[in-house]
Fold:
Amino acid sequence: MPYKTNVKPIQSVHHALELFEVFRTAEKKEEFGVTELSKTLGLHKNNVFRLLATLESRGYIEQNMNTENYRLGIGIFNLGQKFINKLGILKLAKPFMEKIVEQVNESVYIGILREGSVIYLDIVEAPQTVRIVSRVGRDVPAYCTAIGKAQLAYASEEELNKIYMGARLRRYTDKTITSLPALKKHLRDVGEKDYAIDDEEFEERVRCIAIPIKDYLGVPVSALSVSGPACRMSDEKMTEEILPVLKKYSREISKRLGFQG
Structure:
């Protein structure tokens, strides 16, 4: 049955999803108290407590008995894993990600684009002493990450306007692109080269390079990225050592998805 925008939403479900959004959008905080959630959601504390109790009974929320605050439960993890497992691309890509790590000795991510965000689905970590903190499970802005830009480069002008027109492009570092015209110009260059670089645009001292994975229509369905500390990720290493390896294995994955380019 198609979704109808004129159907009145069920308020309790709406509030439960808003509650999950609080946890999803919190960058560093993992637990919230009832009072804090009440203020954030604009709901009476009794209503918030009932929501939490209901979700806790199904395992989607759990209470930290030491702090009495609430956090996401194992049910959310299981649901997310079910979604990831449905994406056969992960099973397909994993062996190639392992080969990339063996050859470049840096960590490899795979992620998908969801409107203006990138969701990191999996990582194969390199056996390095100094490594980048894993982003798996996080969704981060696409416009300042290599894995996001590698896919945004194939979006139409209309799609980019829909995502970013009127939106504020937050500055994460001094190198973050914060204007839509500059982003569009940058993405045209990414599209021509068919790879993207994050030059400390999202996190300082972290550089990444990414290649899109395409389906049988030539449409990016995800992307692979190699990430590492800026001190190890020189321009030469990224374009001369890592890029050829990324290209080779992204093409192998794309071929298995029917891409003939």
User: Anything to note?
Assistant: Strands lie at 61-63, 70-72, 107-114, 117-124, 139-141, 196-199, 206-214, 220-229. DSSP finds nine helices and eight strands in the chain.
